[in-house]
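User: My collaborator sent over this chain with a note saying "see what the structure looks like." That's all I know about it. Can you take a look?
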Amino acid sequence: MAIKVTMPRLSDTMTEGTVATWLKKVGDKISEGDILAEIETDKATMEFESFNEGTLLHIGIQAGETAPVDSLLAIIGNEGEDISALLAGGDAPAAEAPKAESKETPAAEEKTETPAPAAKAATELPKGVIVVTMPRLSDTMTEGTVATWLKKVGDAVAEGDILAEIETDKATMEFESFNAGTLLYIGIQEGNTAPVDSLLAIIGPAGTDISGIADNYTAGGTASAPATEEKAAPAAEKATETVAETSNGGRILASPLAKKIASDKGIQLTQVKGSGENGRIVKSDIENFTPAAQAQPAATATAAAPKADAAPAAPKVFVPAGEVFTEEIKNSQMRKIIAKRLAESLFTAPHYNLVIEVSMDDAMASRATINTVPDTKVSFNDMVIKACALALKKHPKINSQWKEDAIIINHHVNIGVAVAVEDGLVVPVLKFTDAMSLSQIGASVRDLAGRAKNKKLGPQEMEGSTFTVSNLGMFGITEFNSIINQPNSAILSVGAIVEKPVVKNGQIVVGNTMMLSLACDHRTIDGATGAQFLQTLKQYIESPVTMLA
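Assistant: Without extra context I'll predict from the sequence alone. Here is the result:
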């Protein structure tokens, strides 16, 4: 069956895209994962891969042309398949075929103008009503998890308001509304996962009847969320039951994001008073929680509990010695992807590690001098990144990636910088790092790291790396080995600067050294090649003035 491929939203701010290049032509066979085209977004030119297989039957946007998000980009199906109905249908979804049930003759189509409101909603939305679908916030994202809804049904929504926090395969990101109106329907509840393009929400004028739209969208197979009106009472009953269980020492009603933040901060949820519906604990309750302020209410609640019944005591805040205590934390979408990709990397790429010790005396003196320049702040990590970029230009085999039939040598240098965030690890990318100055690298790293921790980083800013740097020196780690961030062939692990006795010119003196460990993929990088790269890197770091040549 033929499938419509639409212009993807490759950025949370993208409203239109330009096809830079088609890498497939009509008639070509397409496999899942093949790159169809290069698309220019509002921030970068990105490769767009196919999530379907078949034959490319139609190209809707030619190279060089610009079109809005969700415009018909291409049609993929079986060779020789008739796609005239899809082309004539314009923006109608390819899954419109089920309408054939009500078609007995072509003429009958015109008689079905007023069969039922739901049928009309399938093809024509009421004025001002917008269907919001699960966005593709990453070019590799196939499904997303709603971590938190920041709006509820009935709330007014302005353009630019944050609707929800969505866990993608790379990060937990804020999803903003591109439309104004009232939130009429929520299709994917908190904690639930759904494929890209599933019905996420409906926005429109207050009081609009959207039951037909929601029902028809569900029937189309793109969403499985229940209608809010039908399930309102059962949901309330379930929430009440959960609260009752909590008061008896059982489950605690809290959003997934609140649970994660509480776990990271070491806060017991039993100490927190929820401000949400039915006493539900939300993100702001955790962020504003003060142990001292909550101690007395918590003690009062605990003392009052036995009066109600012979019910079990409330959960203990502190675990006595010898008592078995476990806690289960649901894996976030980011944690699942980190586990999957790092396991694939470690078990598919034959890793080996090369370690070298670098003198940092001259680097420390150079950094102190550089930072005397007004409005300039350069870190040792920035100096390592710059040295890596220059060394990669001299040793391009390190800047490579493995494919079954070839080794790809990247002659451009895009360095990924590993950044720890509350949900895991992200790797923002410095594009064309070799052309950047030290101060530009420093400013860019601070900007990217800050936005990564505040969930403001776009997925296109975490793609396209050719080499990765991971630094744990600020935590006092002197030496460690990293797992390669595929499709890169190598990753550099940077340790802390240590003051210790060293030998210089035959004399034992106090010096400052740093350990560097290079993890290499033996399929693309031989030991001698990796060693030569480290020698060049050592020269640049030990004599920073050479990086200015």
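A starting point for your reply to your collaborator: Residues 336-548 form a domain with the Chloramphenicol Acetyltransferase fold (CATH 3.30.559.10).
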